[in-house]
Specification:
This is M55 family metallopeptidase. It comes from Neobacillus sedimentimangrovi. Pfam families: Peptidase_M55. Helices cover 31% and strands 24% of the residues. By secondary structure, it is α/β, with parallel strands linked by helices. A seven-stranded mixed beta sheet has the order 3-2-1-4-7-8-9, with helices on both faces. A five-stranded antiparallel beta sheet has the order 6-5-10-12-11. A hairpin with a 2-residue loop joins strand 5 and strand 6. Helix 2 packs parallel to helix 5 and helix 6 crosses helix 7. The termini are far apart.
């Protein structure tokens, strides 16, 4: 058995605002320790249940948050920025299941620190269906025939996962009060829950089918201002929908759509405000 784990940060227990997930802020160092320990609960359980290989992809911001020296010794860690497939780097058809931990709900929805890649994105769509990071990542897994067997995060991330992926196991480590407040489990209790849910997910992985992406998907990204849309539309093949801040790109498959999304949001972040 081979398991892939993508670890984001906003959905980790006890982390509720930007001071926890921004490396320049005072709460970050203790937050990355909690993040690492939470990931380790999932990793260790997978090994205990027979996994021969566990690949972990650090999937938050500059993607260098997880403390490798605190991880299970058999773990292989993918870290660092500029990865061709970002939050799902290294995922391919050799895996028996994928697990997303520390995840959050998409932009414009309830939940702790909700967003879709960058705060300049109001909405993302695949074929006019709203989607966030969780859904896009699950589609890439589905392209390779890999089911997403578990999603851990806040209650709204869990709801989003359950709507997208029938029979997925979810682990709710905190309940959102607002976008920057939550009722959280302690790390010890969250760890116990994650172990139980990981075991359940691995046991029931045969009940979860890969999320099959549409053929020739149309990617649409609605930005918060026109400057961001102008920058994103500089990518060859992208175009602004007239009289909107929406930029569209017709992709040949979900992998091209995913990489187009990465380029468009990176370009959009070049917008200056005055």
């Amino acid at each position: 058995m081979k398991i892939y784990i993508s670890v984001d940060m906003e959905g980790i227990t006890g982390l509720v605002d930007h001071t926890h997930v921004d490396s320049s802020k005072h709460n970050y160092e203790r937050s990355r320790m909690i993040m690492t320990d939470e990931a380790n609960e999932v990793i260790s359980t997978a090994f205990e249940l027979g996994a021969k290989e566990v690949i972990v992809n650090d999937s938050h911001s500059k993607m260098n948050n997880l403390l490798i020296e605190r991880l299970h010794p058999e773990t292989q860690l993918i870290s660092g920025d500029v990865k061709p497939f970002s939050m799902v780097q290294g995922l391919d058809g050799t895996f028996d299941g994928a697990i997303f931990t520390g995840y959050h709900a998409r932009a414009g929805q309830k939940g702790v620190m909700t967003h879709s890649m960058i705060f300049g994105v109001r909405n993302m769509y695949i074929n006019d269906v709203p989607i966030g990071e969780l859904g896009l990542n699950a589609y890439v897994a589905g392209y390779f025939g890999v089911p997403v067997i578990m999603v851990a995060g806040d209650d709204w991330a869990a709801k989003e996962a359950e709507q997208l992926i029938p029979n997925v196991t979810t682990a709710v480590v905190k309940e959102a009060i607002s976008r920057s407040a939550a009722k959280s489990l302690t790390p010890a209790k969250a760890g116990q829950l994650l172990r139980e849910k990981t075991a359940q997910a691995i046991k029931n992985r045969h009940l979860v089918k890969p999320l099959t992406p549409p053929e020739r998907p149309l990617l649409s990204i609605e930005f918060t201002n026109f400057g961001e849309a102008e920058w994103a539309a500089l990518m060859p093949g992208a175009e602004i929908v007239p009289n909107t801040t929406m930029v569209r790109f017709q992709a040949k498959d979900i992998l091209e759509a995913y990489q187009a999304m990465l380029v468009m949001v990176e370009l959009a972040m070049r917008t200056t405000f005055c």
